[in-house]
Amino acid sequence: xxxxxxxxxxxxxxxxxxxxxxxxxxxxxxxxxxxxxxxxxxxxxxxxxxxxxxxxxxxxxxxxxxxxxxxxxxxxxxxxxxxxxxxxxxxxxxxxxxxxxxxxxxxxx
Amino acid sequence: xxxxxxxxxxxxxxxxxxxxxxxxxxxxxxxxxxxxxxxxxxxxxxxxxxxxxxxxxxxxxxxxxxxxxxxxxxxxxxxxxxxxxxxxxxxxxxxxxxxxxxxxxxxxxxxxxxxxxxxxxxxxxxxxxxxxxxxxxxxxxxxxxxxxxxxxxxxxxxxxxxxxxxxxxxxxxxxxxxxxxxxxxxxxxxxxxxxxxxxxxxxxxxxxxxxxxxxxxxxxxxxxxxxxxxxxxxxxxxxxxxxxxxxxxxxxxxxxxxxxxxxxxxxxxxxxxxxxxxxxxxxxxxxxxxxxxxxxxxxxxxxxxxxxxxxxxxxxxxxxxxxxxxxxxxxxxxxxxxxxxxxxxxxxxxxxxxxxxxxxxxxxxxxxxxxxxxxxxxxxxxxxxxxxxxxxxxxxxxxxxxxxxxxxxxxxxxxxxxxxxxxxxxxxxxxxxxxxxxxxxxxxxxxxxxxxxxxxxxxxxxxxxxxxxxxxxxxxxxxxxxxxxxxxxxxxxxxxxxxxxxxxxxxxxxxxxxxxxxxxxxxxxxxxxxxxxxxxxxxxxxxxxxxxxxxxxxxxxxxxxxxxxxxxxxxxxxxxxxxxxxxxxxxxxxxxxxxxxxxxxxxxxxxxxxxxxxxxxxxxxxxxxxxxxxxxxxxxxxxxxxxxxxxxxxxxxxxxxxxxxxxxxxxxxxxxxxxxxxxxxxxxxxxxxxxxxxxxxxxxxxxxxxxxxxxxxxxxxxxxxxxxxxxxxxxxxxxxxxxxxxxxxxxxxxxxxxxxxxxxxxxxxxxxxxxxxxxxxxxxxxxxxxxxxxxxxxxxxxxxxxxxxxxxxxxxxxxxxxxxxxxxxxxxxxxxxxxxxxxxxxxxxxxxxxxxxxxxxxxxxxxxxxxxxxxxxxxxxxxxxxxxxxxxxxxxxxxx
Lengths: 109, 896
Hints:
Mean pLDDT of chain A: 88
Radius of gyration of chain A: 15 Å
Number of strands of chain B: 22
Low-confidence stretches of chain B: 490-495
Shape of chain A: globular
Number of helices of chain B: 29
Strand content of chain B: 15-25%
Mean pLDDT of chain B: 85
Structural class of chain B: alpha+beta
Oligomer: heterodimer
Radius of gyration of chain B: 39 Å
Strand order of the largest sheet of chain B: 3-4-9-6-8-7
Shape of chain B: elongated
Largest interface: A-B, 29 and 31 residues
Distance between the termini of chain B: 70 Å
Number of helices of chain A: 4
Largest sheet of chain B: 6 strands, mixed, barrel
């Protein structure tokens, strides 16, 4: 537990938006997807995940709908809104610029 | 797109606020699913269902914390907390109804009283006059040290000279005194209150009529009226509505005004009242052109000039010019204008006159009451917080954030302040309406007090501020003491910290001191009223009614007609059943003094002339009717009649002038004339008797020197008919008198009737009203502070219960226990009273102008008040002390 990376809020938002960009997903699904794709490095605790999801929904980047999960249970599914999709694009571009710049600095001398 | 996102924000926040249960349930479901999915993933990884669930729970961490985080992310946390705090505050107040009612009541009283008085004061004192540039308007007056005039009305000739010669004034206009004129030509003859004005007065003030036209400058002079053949009239809006039907066609209506032809030319706007509310009709002076050369034009000081400063002129310049011009006029008319000077005051101040002091006193009193209310609220809150100190400490120990606790207490205080404020505003508005209705006519010169938003805001801010300050004070105390310390210090529930106790004690002292101030002020006023009640007005008002009449000059040209009219009326009135006696006089004691004159007593040295003798005419029988004693000589009889133009006759003098000018001699038989320096044309009267003095101006003003002529010798048109009835209410005769007047002259209305007893009571009405108000404030203040004293003593007793129990067990007597407990309360009361008295010794000096027959530092009043307050304080602290002494020591020791 202790070697979990502490993700800043903006990065977490970006990951969630990306995770939802392909198909609508419920909360557990989002955290699973991120965990798998990052080779188990990024493990989002539910204490961070759900506040983020609810906040993103309030802000209008994602919307939710109640549906049935794979195991036939009632689940709340989230998907990107149009604004959310645009936001994802913008934030990805910004992220790439940031990391490239940081890399350059770390590489110097 | 942004709009969508804003809409989303609002939607979600509202849902979180309003449908909280549903939202929470959904979150539960969501998190439950998450747990379920994790558990199934664990099962897939090969764990047993038991282990899978356990591992899932471990991995996922605390559900409650997650929920909290989600709740915080919803963006409505502050509002939710606020709502919860408010709910808690209401519940907590409901559990202690005694405290809540007391606190709300005190707040309401403080805010309500302050609002009512402030609104009244503001309406009267601070309201700017509704004229163009009112700060540039000044009242002009004349002064004369020889006559004893300080701010006297001007004479028309002097006014005109000032108007023409003082360049610093852009314009000077004037108005005269109020009189009543008969109007006929409407449904019924009616008497209206009239004021003469110069033609340009209203346009100088900057107010135009709402219907019709204003007067012109030319109409100040009779020539304009003579050419038009009729007098122009301006109506007040109220008169237009009630007397003239409120119709737009009123312009051009012809009526008979004071016996002459007149026509309504305009109606002044709603609410316009200059110079006084109650003026119903305005009429130009209509001076004859020849009057400019007449002696009376410069001698009769009967008009009030109003001036407007010219652009660029300063008041100092104007005052200097005024002085110079007055000196000039004196040089040109040495006989008449000797030592006459002119001065100016801002119009607003002048119109306010002598109402300023009582208003300021009231303001001060209500300010004191407000302070006491604040102190009392603070007291209540501190005591309450002390009772909760232990609970607070426990909560702090359990981890409630200090900020949270402070916020909680702040919310409570604000809720209390809101409740009290709402009640206070309601009370304030009601109180203002009550004041409007109860105030004796003329006290405040204004009949409606708009409730001022600024005043409410101030009063609410003051008391709310006190509530919040004292409500959160203990929370700040809690910040600085750790929970352990607080628990230790708190001991058993209800015991306050040392600092809180000191503050409460200080508050009670303050309350007692302020209450003492109020009671002393009220006490002085009570003494004043008592003294006033015992003043002998000079006549016996019981069973007497006075009826005003004014016969118009147009139809009663010569003295014979006037005499005939009044003789006829009086004869018929005397014949009415129940009438013991009836007569007439040209003045009304305590209300209408009539005119004054210079005089000269035969046989004195040339420079021993007299000034300012009140002169009036009475019909025979007046002094018996009014119960005024004859002190020397004889009364007037029917035989004392008209001797002819310029031929002197007889006169009576009153006791005041007999004392002043005939000390040691017999005035009867001496001769007197109403000229300052008699010459061959002077008319001499022989004094035939001396009568008791009646107070002419006000109940508190001593009687002035007076000369009384027989009516037949000097008939006046405006007379008061006095009727004394043998028994019962004299006013019941008024309708009968009305029909008599109607019979004798159908065109003459009844002008007004006053029972003399009412008149005497009215003369004290103002002071009595003030006294009642102040007494009310004082009573409230005393009650509030006594409650404070009681509370403090009760708490001290409660705190010391074990110690006292021990003492009783060791043999202390009841008396000792009582003394121990009472000591604190007594000390507070004594300190408070001492402070209050010290303050009052200085403060009551401001009341000097309002007091009659008692000095501001009257020792008797002070002594009585001090004794009363100490006794009251003693009884307030005695009750809890006695209860403390009754307690069984075994109980208290066991409870330790």
